[in-house]
Amino acid sequence: MVTSRDVARLAGVSQMTVSRVLQGSTKVAAGTRDRVLAAMRESGYQPNAAARTMRTRRTATIGVVVADITNPFYPQLLEAVGRALGEAGQRMVLWNAPDSGGTSALEALDEGTVDGLLFTTATETSPGLADAVERGQPIALLHRGLDGLDCDQVTTDNVAGGRAVADYLVGTGHTRIGFLAGPDLPATARHRERGFRDRLAELGHPLADPLVARGGFSHDVARSATRDLLSRQDPPTAVFCANDLTALGAVDGAVSLGKRVPADVWVVGYDDIAMTSWDSYDLTTVRQPIADMSRAAVRLLLARIDDRDRPARVEEFPCELVVRGSTAGTPQPSAVDT
Amino acid sequence: MVTSRDVARLAGVSQMTVSRVLQGSTKVAAGTRDRVLAAMRESGYQPNAAARTMRTRRTATIGVVVADITNPFYPQLLEAVGRALGEAGQRMVLWNAPDSGGTSALEALDEGTVDGLLFTTATETSPGLADAVERGQPIALLHRGLDGLDCDQVTTDNVAGGRAVADYLVGTGHTRIGFLAGPDLPATARHRERGFRDRLAELGHPLADPLVARGGFSHDVARSATRDLLSRQDPPTAVFCANDLTALGAVDGAVSLGKRVPADVWVVGYDDIAMTSWDSYDLTTVRQPIADMSRAAVRLLLARIDDRDRPARVEEFPCELVVRGSTAGTPQPSAVDT
């Protein structure tokens, strides 16, 4: 039977350090932690998860819940979260929860196989989420916030992002503007729409209902909605899409009709996923600072795990309009100052 | 203290059924399982993971290891695996292991928080993998196989896929053919290259070294390599890429030089990710049957968990050339029959 003493000897560290690594302490340098873990594997040391959890109450593992990993935004966000967790000496496990909304992850938290959870796609209908927060479980929201839920939340100012796009499009002379709204539930989609809609109205060019398409966050739905919009007698001259995936669908809808972007129609997305900078799309979009957001969320969650009684914090990051080739004008001061 | 008896009463099932759900038995209908899980949550029942694992030795949770979720192929594969696991009454947890190669997942398996592991991106250097297989841990490989590793493996015939592309390009008249090879380690990349290279040689048009670019599986590297190829005095008339992500990079490299695909250069990818069918790319590629492969891998892994002594099986699925707009010819019988 291999003991932690053997591991310590093999790794050339004290038994206390081995114990700290097992407890997921952030006081161990990454290099030392790697050496201890390597020694554990090499020696065949098998800490008993159950016994360890009971003893230390820490697994150094954080669960992350995501609703749709086939939307390329989420793999990028998860990569950033994984990096932030790694920097903090924590491991990441993922739950992709298209239907169940993270029920399995909440079970794992209750069972103690993870120390805390980051929800990236929470909505008001996420089953069990509000209940778990109320019971004091360490849970933080990243990307999608939830009004009225008393837990740590890291988001971007999606209202300001929507407003910035309205300013940009009206400031460059557009008046017939289309909008591909996202689904109703996510706060991100609702806030982007509110900012965009309110600012357009303030600028004297309120959104026209027939130029608004409502649907899911999918490429296919967006492509088909854009084909409908562009086939109208009075097609929009610019289309704003509530996320990048749908903006790529909008570009492809235009391409499928033989239209050119931006000569025939401008397209603007939201998120700044890697693909938007690829030559075939070269998409104007609104950038979320996902590396900074991820680090902030990890920091808040780890602080919460250490102290469940600290007051919940909401951190909202600014976002930034990134102008590329899918639009043909530079941002201008808009007609109306606010 | 809520007991499993309370859960059974609330769900309207027998205590045996509750126990079966806890054990991850496949004998419980999905609807019943959902009802029991809902009752557990509603009643606040907290099975002790440790005690439960010791009692039943089953968590009904399978870990899946992936190396790069930002390559869109993997989210699609994970979605298919998640669906196959759901059909089998199993939960999925994911490890994204760009550096550590699944060490954390292997630890979770040793500790009993998952019942088995599916590796989707195994290579000969995956740390601890061969050792864990040797110790009899339930591990199956999906997508990337490993010669000489005695475990269940589900792959596609990547050699045949590479050969099919060679037949297609030579059969449509190409003789100056470029190749963007993948990294050296993954069996998928090596087998695709071997099939493509051998078949081109058999057909009398061996690959010319200067037309082969070797690099990682990234869009940026592929874009830049393609720009180099197409800037030559004698540019290739067609480029085969070892996966779709790099083929999208090759198209963008051509676009960035003002070249048209397929008028100036044909591009062929491999995998058939969703994006290849989008209008802006419309990419000819080789399709892997990921839904069938995922179900096969889940079936083999669950059988292995039930019986660790059964002989390991290797299942190899056929793949299929899908011709789209990035090439301009229909497949023809090639000049040389084999």
Automatic annotation (TrEMBL), chains A, B:
GO terms for molecular function: DNA binding. It holds the Pfam family LacI. SMART domains: HTH_LACI. Residues 2-56 form the HTH lacI-type domain. PROSITE patterns: HTH_LACI_2 (PS50932). Keywords: DNA-binding, Transcription, Transcription regulation. The keyword 4Fe-4S does not apply. This is LacI family DNA-binding transcriptional regulator. The lineage of its organism: Bacteria, Bacillati, Actinomycetota, Actinomycetes, Pseudonocardiales.
